[in-house]
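Form 12-C: Joint structure prediction
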Amino acid sequence: MKKRVLQLATVMLVGGMVFPVFSQASDDEIQKKIDKLSQEVEELKNSLKKVENKSLGKWLTIGGDYRFRYDYLKGETRPFTDASATFANAQNKMQQGYFNAVAAGDAAQTRFWAGNIAGMTAFSQQMTGVKTFSQAQSFLGANQQLLGGLGNFAVQVPAYEPENKSLYTNRFGLDLHAKATENVTVTARLVTYKVFGSQDDSAVTVDGNAPYFADRVGVFDGTLGHVPSDGSLEVDRAYGTLSNIFDQPLWFSVGRRPSTGGAPSNLKLNNERPGNGGTPSLLVDYAFDGMTIGYAPEIDALPGAYAKICYGRGFESGYRDTPGNSLSDTDMVGLAVIPIDTDPLRVWLQWNRGINIFDFPTMDDTYYGNTGAKTNLGDIDWYGAGAMSTIKKAGPGNLNLFADFALSDTHPNDNVSSQAGFQGLLTGGFFDPEAPSDKTGWAVSAGIRYDLPSKTKLGLEYNHGSEDWITFAPAADDMWTSKVGTRGNVYEGYIIQELDLKPVSSYFSKTFFRLGYQYYDFEYTGSNNWVGAPVALSDAVGQMMLMAPVKEAHNVYATFEVKF
Amino acid sequence: MNKIFSVVLVLAVLVVSSLSWVASASAEEAKMVGEVSKITLAADGKSATAILKDIKTGDSVPIEIKDELTLDKLKDKRIVEGDEIRCKFDKQDGKNTSKTFVKTAGC
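Section 2 - Result
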């Protein structure tokens, strides 16, 4: 027994000594396996990180929008004498008279018409050489007889009611935003905007008749992609931004600017607030090529505050001081101060100045042929102040409100536009020049939009512009003319119905219908036109004008829109 | 004398204690610019935690957000993962509490 117990104890003792050795060997193996697995997991993590870093979604955001739009347009004009048609009529009649006389072998009549043609030709050539108000007065004084004769060829257009029962347009925009390097981004927007069944802008610019408004004579640099035209893919925005300069909330941005669709027009367009970008839509709605320096100080009492200095080139004159070009570039500078930018309250203050304003932008194939700047008419100062607010849970839904006020102050120089019959910066009529004088206009704009939980949004907007009000907003999303530039009143109501569909491509993806109505009640001619003095519509009784004076206009519109 | 000494001692203790309280109540303010790598909203919607990856150091910093305006932006997805944020926050007792939480300004 003792021996057996001793043997058992020995076995146990030896076993106890050996077992840890075996255990140690197993622990080592397990540890090795754990280490190996940890290393593999780490390698997998690094690989995944490399893949993530290279994936497009990390640095590139692609988005955009599609819109189909239907418009019903009806207006009412006042009688006027079409200046352009009068000159064309005179030329045609004189040429016809000459050819008839030649065919008839009537020497006297041939000399008569030849003399008229020569006189008209000399008149036109000398007219283009008139640069200033005093030169215009002298020219007109010296050509009274011919002017009287021109009256015989006057094309008088009685009042009429233009109507387009169905205008269909298609618009597609592609947005790209790339994080290129630390603190540097590049943003671009490409857009195409086309009329159904057309490869040009004639449906909007009144093909074959005197246009109604200066911002819808044709498509020009700052309205590409904002006025329906030939469907070309245009670069609406393309700019680079350097942020966090010197580790401060300071940024510099340059390129084709996001200077369209600013606050508060984002409400009607059902877009998000523009953030730091954009300009108040009452003052500027134009795709400027320019640059911005901005600073967003962190002031606890003024959340979201920022300020920026902006610059844009409205017209590039090219080589100057040449035998054929003495035009100055047209530039715009501005200062924007947004002292507070939160959902419940966003306030903006803005000043901008247009320097060396041109008389005509460069446009092709207009009613007047190809147009271009021929003279600089002076400068314009603009001042604006506005606010908008989003009040959440105001009843069952959210309430958005805005109010905006602006002043325009023109500073004409002594120049007149010969291609506009010697009109100046908000001065004079066709062949009726006025001595240059500063003119001040003003405008107000206000509106609300109520967003219901059913994704229905109801909006009402009103704006009024005074006699001498002029803005710089030709790219506004309105068919007749930019409503914020109206010298009179505009009333607009709209309903937006978003479809209750889950976003897929981005958090802000949505699909919606919009139905709206605009009523323009014009009080003066020349809305959105800084060439020539406004005329009260009640006094428009047949004077010679470049554009048909519109008394009132209606626009019913409906859209189907997708934002992705 | 003993009574006076006791009073002085109690006063001294009170002064030292209050100084300590002041020292522990003052939080350290910090600023950073970082990319949002994660957002977690509290179930009651009254707070959120955002992880910001510092663009300079690469460190991940958790930030607690309690102000309603920023919480609204998080709920509306106007601030999402991937956005670059300029943040000012208080560091206290191991917590980072947001004072301002805004997207990097630009454009």
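Section 3 - Comments
The two ends of chain A are 91 Å apart (CA to CA). The helical segments of chain A are 2-54, 56-59, 83-104, 107-128, 133-142, 144-150, 202-205, 265-269.
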